Fold these 3 entries.
Entry 1:
Amino acid sequence: MPPAAPSQPNQPGQPTQASPSAAAGLAPLPRPLPRTRGRQQAGPLPAEDAAIPLERVPYFRSDLRRIAITAGLMFVLLIAGSIVLRSLLQA
């Protein structure tokens, strides 16, 4: 087997390796958020920021309706399964 030739940078089939300084330049590190000194003041929120109005929340009522329908169907399946199992175990 002949000795391996020195690798060329653009040779097909060979993975290209970037130098560590070039790799660091391509992906900058995220900066940490600045920390505030001391604790934030505790207390109630202002009245205008206390809640989100429901008419501003998209699909809220339709999601509640879907959850209620799903819960109802699960309850019906639970009762039906209980009746079926009771009849199978008594036989």
Entry 2:
Amino acid sequence: MGASTANSPAERLAVAIVVLLGLAGHASFAVADSGSAAEDAALARYVAAANEQDTVAAIGHLLDYSILAHGENAPRTALLTHRYGELLMRAGRHREATAVLKTALERSEVAFGEYSEESLDINMSLGYAYGELGRRRVYGFHYFDRALEILRARGERETIRYVVALLNIVSSVADNDGLSGQTTANIVDNDYSAVDGNVTNLQLDYRYRNDFDKVLGYLDEAGELARALADEDPFLSAKVAIARAKLEVLETADLASAPIGVRGRITHQTVVERNDATRDQLDDAMNVLSRDPESNSVFLAAANATLLDIAWLDDDRDRMLALCASGALDSSTQYTADRLFRITADGSVLAPEFGFEVPTNLFDGRFRPTKPARDELGERVAQPYFVPACINGELMAALVNAPRVIIEEFE
């Protein structure tokens, strides 16, 4: 390759790496003016992908170049590997992302150390990636716990950053619906006395268990630290309370979804009682955060969204309408227009025919099966359903977990 000009592929490559990795000022990312044929070929593939505006492929080719030019465990290669894994995850290619992020972790531990900032970030990314995969959540917990271990080893446990990490973990696991459990059947030997002697009565004992206890442990730790850090952030305990309320609502819906006759399932009356207690908890937290609504807007929005979910679980359409009409919650930025539909007075969704199965009423999606469908690889298959959404003051139904397919027109 000849000398670089301002618009040469090499120059554009150097700028792209700096911008994409957030490493402004790192001159070491400059591309050599001459290299092997393999390096030149990798650069040519990068230019072609960049011209096609295919960011994921472009970064993949930059990674190929870095491995050739600098080695697999060079700092710049480790950073690029992490970036590539993140882009794959954002593109929905979660299986590939997980494999790439594992490689990024190995390279970063060599390049920067096991307790480095980069290793910390990649462990968190791997936790998120396994959540998106929808299976083997124990692996996600492993990487989350490793990230927390790194913070503790660096003396950062009693910090706001540590509490925020705990809340991010809880939010990620909850948002990915990764805590639902399963029903197990055990043979129980019930011996009892009869007139003619002892009788053995073998029965199946069905029990439902989920994984909410694991995440509640994170929240217990966050709550303890938030109280100790009250001087630094007087709102931190209220933020933890809102995260706990959100999780409690999800667990309530999960337990109510367990099959009838299974131990662990809760009744509608229990649902109402749990939701009432959670609503009181939210009210207290929101009163605290409302002292500075601008700084706490994200958590106040999360609290109002949880209140909407509670009203949904309670089948209280009037409360849902009032919350939307109040303007306290607006979800316009969360959903695209093609996923929003108006509803009738009884909750029926005014939507066209879809090329997949989906409930036709907003309230049918409140309690979903606790045993989701799996594909041939054992991964959870997302089941489309409708959730409530406040859009410009109006209560609407938002379609979630739906594949991006062409929707058939009305007849």
Entry 3:
Amino acid sequence: MAFPGRRRACFALLALAASALAWGQPQVAFSDFEFVPADPDRDPDGLPGSGDEYMDSGGTWNGAAEVTNSSGDTFRFTLSNTAAGQPDPAVDEIAYDLAVSLTLPAGLRLPVSPFPVTVTASGGDPGLGNCTAPAGVTATQSGSTVSFVLPPGTSLPGQGGGAEPCRLRFEFGLTTRDAVPFAPAGAAVLDYTATFNSVPGDPGSAAAVSGQQTVAVRRGDLIVTKSAVPNPADPNGAYAHGGNGPVAGQRLQQRLGRHLRGACPGHARSAFRRGDLEPAAASQRPARQPPCRCRPAAANTPSPISRRARAPTSSSRPKWR
């Protein structure tokens, strides 16, 4: 007695199993997260990847110029497919239709959107030659989400007959915001996600993996004090730094009230050099100038002194004018 319906169902199940076996299952993972500050001063021990590197809150300075809206700080990560793969391209456990995104914490952004992304490839099966880097990759941002725009059909093959897995190394830039609200001080967590299909063009075979990178963000905290000023005026004061990030390029300006005039022009304003306010707990250094005599503009006129201090407390970017 024949059972044609049952036979057809059996064949369908066998075909489905054969198809799943043929396409295999990719083993995709994130690794080798790296952060390189644009300014070497923000890597205190000078050893990349040691964990003491940090971002400035309030934008990005590279030690010589503002790079907030151009290159920012450098970030890198690797995507690899550790599946064994096979010499036959039909069963090499390729991760098809690759898509990569990043969720940013508050206060971080791309320097410019779209931002050019450098991708390099290594490992994989040299016999197949299919571990290649996609060209023309960019990153775009919408809200807190950064999308890495890959060419359609980008794939990540398995290791195959190679000595190492196929790896794609991504390099791009990020910066902290240079306008309020600034990035808060502390640990900034970056969440990466990669999605792919084990069968090309088949959303039903989709899978996703995630990775996480943590970067320190520091803010400066400038404190300026000024003592009572006798006549002749002695414009000596003191400034202290209570933050854990540098506050450089600051300008401290003192203006005389409308009832006073300075006998020595130029002494009412001073600028501190780069490095004058590096992080140092409870450090206080005098900001001294030669005494400058202040004289009333008219006899018997009260002589208040109006003082104003200005310094960016959320950025360490020197701006000389």
